[in-house]
Amino acid sequence: MPRRAGKIASITVAAVASFAGQACADTVEINLSSFVNADLTTYSGGSNYPQNGGSITVDGIPFQLATNGPQDDTAVLQTSGVDDYSIPVGVAGVTSVDLLVNSAYGSCGTDVGEIDFVGASQTYSYDLTEGLNIRDHFDGDFCNTAANTSGTASFGGGADRLDMDSIVLPASFSNQTLESIVFKGFGQGELGEPFLAAATVVIPDDPDPPAVPEPSTLLFLVVAGTIVVLRSRS
């Protein structure tokens, strides 16, 4: 099936909190509203999920859940068959991408899809394998483990979930624009059909911020400076 090119995705920028002496970063939430094609609230245990999209945070990373339909139901980009979807991004200096990714159904050990991160001068591919970095969204009879996910938003007491995959891009992406994310399904049916619920990219604000003195060091410098001034006046 030919690649489906969508509308330009809208983005929301948020600051990631930092501590003294540590680098800051910005997150850019990709709005998938122009690309979602399946109502998540109708899936197994779908009433457990947020019903009308909105913001959620997983391990400190903000995401925006998309909606569709007349009732603005929470929706996902669901693959079905062998197909792929190209989502424009157009953000420069991206170092990592956080995705909420799960599958409908799933058999552990099956390669069910791929995510391509297309930069201005290179493409980085990330494979989706049931039991490794993707699993069924519902805690039922299908694959329920995913050893390499980075965090999970649980709903309905753990009956339903959205798992976060954190993908670190090659260092060369920091000097180019991430033009698009291509989400692919391999048409595995009940062996696993991946879906994308949300995407957020991370951009370092300042890779080498100036060091900020610790409070005790700052106090010492103030006292030392005061002594020097007093001695110079005596």
Keywords:
5-stranded mixed β-sheet; disordered N terminus; single chain; mainly beta; 45% strand; 234 residues; 1 helix
Helicity range: under 10%
Query: Total helix count?
Result: 1
Q: Distance between termini?
A: 86 Å
Mean pLDDT metric = 86
Tell me the structural class. mainly beta
- Sheet-strand content, in percent, reads over 45%
Biggest beta sheet summary: 9 strands, antiparallel
The low-confidence parts are 1-10, 15-23, 220-224, 226-230
Topology:
Elements: E1 4-5, E2 11-16, E3 25-30, E4 38-39, E5 54-58, E6 61-65, E7 67-68, E8 73-78, E9 82-92, E10 96-104, E11 111-119, E12 123-129, E13 151-155, E14 160-168, E15 177-186, E16 193-204, H1 215-233
Parallel strand pairs: 1-9
Antiparallel strand pairs: 2-3, 3-16, 4-8, 5-6, 7-8, 8-16, 9-15, 10-14, 10-16, 11-12, 11-15, 13-14
Describe this structure in words.
The strands form three sheets. Strands 2, 3, 4, 7, 8, 10, 13, 14 and 16 form a nine-stranded antiparallel beta sheet that branches. Strands 1-9-15-11-12 form a five-stranded mixed beta sheet, with no helix packed on it. It has a two-stranded antiparallel sheet with strand order 5-6. With 234 residues, the protein is mainly β. It is globular, with a radius of gyration of 22 Å. The chain has one domain (4-233). The chain has one helix spanning 215-233, and strands at residues 4-5, 11-16, 25-30, 38-39, 54-58, 61-65, 67-68, 73-78, 82-92, 96-104, 111-119, 123-129, 151-155, 160-168, 177-186, 193-204. Helix content is 8%, strand content 45%. The longest helix is centred in the C-terminal third of the chain and has 19 residues, at 215-233. The protein contains one helix and 16 strands. The termini are far apart.
